[in-house]
Amino acid sequence: MIGGYLRNERYPEALEMYEAMRSHSLRTDSCTCTFELKACTSLSDFETGMEIIDEARRLFDEMPPKDVVCWNSMIGGYVGACDFDKAFDLFFKMWGCGIRPSPITMASLIQACGGIGNLELGKCIHGCVNGLGMGCDILFNTSLVDMYGYVQNGLYFELFDLFFRLVSSGGGFDSVTMVSLLQGCAQIACLFTGKVLHGCVLRRGLESNLIVLTAIVDLYVKCGSLKLATSVFSRMQERNVISWTAMLVGLAQNGHAEDALRLFRQMQEEGVALNSVTLVSLIHACAQLGSLKKGKSVQAHLIRCGFVFNAVNITSLVDMYAKCGKVESAKRVFDNGSTSKDIVLWNSMITGYGIHGYGRQAVGLYDRMIKEGLKPNQTTFISLLSACSHSGRLEEAKALIKQMPFEPGNAVLEALLSGCRTHKNINMGICTADRLLSLDVMNPGIYIVLSNIYAEGRRWNEVDYVRGLMRKRGLRKTPGYSLIEVGNQVHAFFAGDNSHPFWSLLSCGDYW
DNA sequence: ATAGGGTTAG
């Protein structure tokens, strides 16, 4: 019964049942306790989880004849609670008792290796498993795939190599293995490997699995191949919020925000309810389009539906209002959620102040943030610096960089550099550009700003020199543009491009 | 009876 509740993710009921069982003085075994542990960890009730695992261990020690399932439950319990040392201790004890481990035992250990990030140990265990003759076990191999996925840091090659060796030696995989692989492939955005994996899905007959297909859509999106993503998505027999959202994000993030909004309407017509992730990507699409109207209408729609806003949603709204030029509205939205200790939310408001040059307010919010015990990160400083450099507080900016608890990254220095340009501080500008070029020699933006700084100081020889460097290194300037909403349309104005029909209106003064 | 999965802001 308890197991049934767990399978249906009804954790509170499972816990209640467990309590009832104990109050009737029924004997609970280590498996029941592990069930309970699972319920606790799923409920993020960490303390109860720890109590229960200790209790599980006590019962486990009292049980005289223990089969492999009991050992696995207990080891798995420890791994689930991130108590990896105890998991390994118990494994050695089990070995000492002469119990032959099963693939599940080994899978739990591999999971533990991923958890502590010890790949070498993982490889050791992989070797043992081959020795035990379980090298082709689907269950075990899935955990391996997971471990290589977990450890990340450029181990994708090993991961795919492992997988393809597995397939060619006749070893199996299932939908869960495949989803892990697709995810790993999406992270490195390797279209070629993606297509091969897609082929494996078809050959394996997994092409009607909703989760696998959603992962494929996301993979093609991350590889920038909207054509393939769309073709998979449009052929899906079954779709849910997550698959719709994956496609929507794909459109929005590849510069097709209008299409994303169109897809959203289609989703509503088909009666699929949106969730908070859908919302964030929608608002993001509106912000990209610079369309305040669409953003506001999405917000209004949600308020009507009684949608509960969380820190992430509020962040996206703050971001959208700020990008559309409405700092006051951004602040109002922010105030509604400012009891949250979410650093990203606070950063978004500081960024909002920054892009509009409200240096004083940005610094004020930063002070308040420190007072409330929040820890600033790189993004915080980037936003602060851009706020300071827009409003002429260069020395303050420089002091901020000095007191940063970490080395300034490219973005921090870029913000300072653009401030130097705005305020014509040639010497600080040259120093900053030098430092930046030593970090990122192929960034055209740095050369552009540096040559502008020289030009403003009328140092033409240096201007020529910098431009020559750019040419020699094959770097080109990327055009800047801004978005303006007029009526129901958003127009893009590129720097140095006066061809847009609205320029004539601008110069006639009809519109503004 | 014991493991594992897909989408989001800066």
TrEMBL record:
It comes from the Eukaryota. One of its GO terms (biological process) is RNA modification. It holds the Pfam family PPR. Keywords: Repeat. InterPro entries: E_motif, PPR_At4g14850-like_plant, PPR_rpt, TPR-like_helical_dom_sf. The keyword Endoplasmic reticulum does not apply. GO terms for molecular function: RNA binding. PPR repeats lie at residues 67-101, 240-274, 342-376, 377-407. One of its GO terms (cellular component) is mitochondrion. Belongs to the PPR family. PCMP-E subfamily. This is Pentatricopeptide repeat-containing protein.
